Amino acid sequence: MAHKKLDDYTEDDLGQDQPITSLKILVIGESNVGKSSLMNRFIDDTFDPNMANTIGVDYRSRVVNVDGQTVQLGIWDTAGQERFRTLTPTYYRNAQGAVIVYDVTRRQTFERVEQWLQELDAYVNRTDVVKMIVGNKTDLKNREVSREEGQQLARRHSTLFIEASALENDNVQVCFEDLVYHVSYFIEIHK
């Protein structure tokens, strides 16, 4: 079934009688796979080629509309470096969606996706977290991980899958739209 695109709401659009649902979305994966770039492209349609690594956790929010419902997204971008791992488990709590990112030009980041999924399962205190595996940096030519490998991994773990390019703004909106749609669907059926 097709779903409506996420549309930004202005302050004026948010009337007193319109309910707002808050969703917590995590963006996790190895260092330098483009997690922050994906988040910044989605939040304010920017791309910084000289972006510094995230230290600890970065938080951004955006109000969107999904199928006529106003949704406040809280997006938590976690550092991929091992030295910050002790900080991240507390941020996993109550997450309803997770984007697990790898770099299609660095096979080792793809091979670590299963460990990120295990960490997510260990620290998230919900059983209904919607997960999406994202192969980022499809604009680069030196690909080491095929689309088919990403799809197979996603099937094995029953997650959503998409490839994207934060640089070219390819599939970034679709990535978050699809994740939020599925999270909203699970919330609706569990009411």
Automatic annotation (TrEMBL):
One GO CC term, this protein: endomembrane system
Superkingdom to which the source organism belongs = Eukaryota
Q: What InterPro entries does its record include? A: P-loop_NTPase (IPR027417), Rab (IPR050227), Small_GTP-bd (IPR005225), Small_GTPase (IPR001806)
An example of a Pfam family matching this protein is Ras
Localization terms from the record: Endomembrane system
Which keywords does this chain's UniProt record carry? GTP-binding, Membrane, Nucleotide-binding
Q: Per UniProt, what is one GO molecular function of this protein? A: GTPase activity
Position of the signal peptide: none
Could you identify this protein by its name? Ras-related protein Rab-18
Q: Which organism is it from?
A: Cloeon dipterum
